[in-house]
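ping. complex inputs:
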Amino acid sequence: MIPPLPGSAHAAPPSLASHQASGLTPGTSSDPPIGADCCRLGALHKGQRAVVTGLDESAVATPLPPGELERRMIEMGLIEGACVEILHEGFPGADPLAVRINDHTLALRRAEAHAVLVTLG
Amino acid sequence: MSDTVLSSPAFMGVPPRIALVGNPNCGKTALFNALTGARQKVANYPGVTVERKIGEFLSPAGTRVQLVDLPGTYSLRARSPDEEVTRDVVLGRFQHEAPPDVMVCVADATNLRLHLRLVLELKKLGRPIILALNMMDVAEARGCRVDAAALSAALGVPVVPTVAIKRTGVVGLLDQIDRSMVAMTVTPAHSPSNAPGPLPCGWSEPSALDLRAYHQQVETILATALRDAGRPSLATRRIDAALLHPAIGLPFLFLVLFLMFQAVFAWAAVPMDMIDKGLGWVQAAAGAALPDGLLKSLLTDGIIAGVGSVVIFLPQILVLFFFILMLESTGYMARAAFLLDRLMGGVGLHGRAFIPLLSSFACAVPGIMAARTIENRADRLATIMIAPLMTCSARLPVYTLIIAAFVPDRTVAGGMIGLQGLVMFTLYAAGILSALAAAFVLKRTIFKGAREPLLMELPSYRLPSPRDILLGLLERARIFLARAGTVIFAIMILLWFLGSFPAAPDGATGPAIDYSFAGMLGHALAPLLAPIGFTWQIAIALVPGMAAREVAVAALGTVYALSETGDALSGSLAGVLAADWSLPTALSLLAWFVFAPQCVSTLSVVKRETNSWFWMLVMIVYMTALAYGAAFVTFHLSSALLGG
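pong. complex structure:
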C-alpha cells in the first residue's frame, strides 16, 4: 500500500479554524475559539495532561520569520492530536517546561508554549 | 563480488559513499563508530566551517565503503550552519562533491513518531535509502515492538534493526548495505554516482501543511507497523524528578561543574609534568647534538619551547572534554541547558550557549567551534564574541606566577580558605562575570533581538559507551595537535625571529632580547603602557605574549635574562618579579590578562567561523579596550589604596 503523498487533499487531520488558517497563510490565524476546555500549554502546571488542538504562532514574539515557529513546533512533534504532559518545571519562575509529547520529552519556555492550544484531559 | 560492484557503471571504480542521516539523539555517532572504528578522520568541507567526519569500512562482501557522518538534524529545512551542511550534502549542492550513493537513515526505535518524518522527506529525493532502527535493545527493554517487515512494506525502503553499542549489533546493516549496492549496479535508473551537482528532484522547503501531511503519513504507517509503543523510561523520569527539581537542580549542576574543574587540575597535573620533563629532555638532547648557532637556537628556543608550551595543555583539554563528552552522551547536558536557560536568558543568551562557554574553559578554540549548533546568527555571534573571556588554560601560567610572587601563602576566614586559591577563584569569577556582562551589552546593542526559541529535546538517560568516549577524545587530541603543528608552529618561528634578530652587539649589558625587533617594539610600546603601570620588560614580553598567552612566562624569563625553563623558571621568576614590580603593577597585569585578546589561534578561528575579517577585528578592538581600561582602573585604584 502506498501512503498518500504530502499535500494531497485527504491527508488533512481534524482541524480547528486556527489550524486551517495558519496552514494556508503562515503567520496569521483567526482568534482561537474559547471553549470550556480550551487553553494554552503555557498556562498548564506540573502533572497536568492535555491534547494539542492547534498552533497559534501570533501569540509569541520571536526573532523568526512568520510561519517558522509553527513549522519548528511541528517538526518537534507539537501537532494536533499529540498527547502532552507537563513533567517538570524550571527554577526560578517555573520556566522552562519539560513536556512529554507522545514518545519523547521536549523542553520549551512558557512564552513559546503559549503558541500551543490544548484541551485538558 | 566486490570487484563487480566497484567496476560497474554505477560506481566506476570509485568506492561507494554512504551518508548517515538522522535526528540528534538517535545514536548516529555510535553507529558511525561501530562501522568505522578508529578508521575515521575529520576534514573540512570546502568553503564551509563545519568539519566533515568521514571513515571507511570493509563490507562483508569485501567492498571498501566510504562513510560520512552528517550533523544531526530534525528536518532538511536547515536552521543552523551544521544542519545546512546535512541538507547540502544530501541534495548534492556542494560544488565538488557528489551526493551520497546510499543514505542510511538512523532512527530511534522508541521514538518513531518523531523520527520517521525525516525518512519520508529523504525518500522524496529518490536516492537509495536504508532505515536503521537503532537502540533496539532499549526498545525491547521497554516493551516497544516494531514489525520491521511491515514497516519496510509501508515505507518502501529496507528496514534493519541495529544496536550500535554492541559489536554484533550492526551485522544486519552491513549485509543490507551490500544488497543495496548490488541493487544499484543492476538498476541503472540513477545518474552515475560520481557526478557532482544538485539532484534533479526539485526539493523545496516544506510548508506547515506539508509537514502536517508528513506526520499524518507517519501515523498511518505506524498504525500498521508499530505493534506496541512500549513504556517511557521510568528511570529517566525518576532521575529528572531529582535533577530538575527546583531546589536540587541548580545546586547539583554547580556541584558537578565544581568537581569537574577540580578534576581537570588534579588529573592533568601528572601528565603535564611528564610532558614538561619530556620537553626538557628533548631540548637538552637537541642542544647537545647541534653546534651552537642559529639552527640550535631556532630548534630549542623557537620550535621546541614554543610548540611545547602549547602542547603541554593537551592533558587539561582532554580531561575537560572527557567530562563534556560524558555529560553529552549520558544526556545530562540537555538538562544543564534546561536549568541554565533562565539565568542565561537574563543576559540574553540561549541555554544551549552554555556548552561552547564551558568548552572555552579549556581553550576558546573548540568552544567557538561548538557555537555552530546555535541556530540564530545573532545569538551565535554573541556567544563567539564572549567565549574568549572565559578563563582558558593558557592564562593559568601567568596567574600562577603572579600569585606566587605577590600573594602571601596565608589562609583567611580562620584557616579555612587559602588566600592564593581565593585570588585564583576571583580571577576565574572575573572571567565569567565579564563574559556575562559583555553578553548583556552585546544583546542590547549590536545583537539586539528576542531569543531563539528553546524547543530542545530531553533525551532519555543512557550509559555512556567507553568506545565512543575514547574515539571522541582521540578526535579532539588530533585536532588540537594538528593546530599546534601548523598555526602555532608558524607563529613560534616568527616570534623566535623577532626575538633573536638583530643579535645583541658585543659588550652588551642588557638581555639579548632588548636589542632585537621584539625589544624595539617593546620599547616603542612602553610609553603607551606606562599609564597602566607596565614596565618596559612587560612591554617587551607582551610582544610575543599578544600572539599566544602561553609564551608570556617564557618571554618574561628571557627579558629578565633567566635561562631556566619550566617550573624552575617560574620559581626564580617569582622571586625576581616580587623584587622588581610593585603590587599595583602586578594587579594591573592580572586585569590585563583577564580581558586582552592574546591568542592568534582564537582570532583565526573567529575569522573562519564568521567568514569575515570584520568580527575578528571587532573582537581585537573591544577586548583590547576592555583590557586597557581594566588595567588602568586597577593600577590607579590599587596605587591610591596602597599608597603607591
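Residues 393 and 634 of chain B are 23 Å apart (CA to CA).
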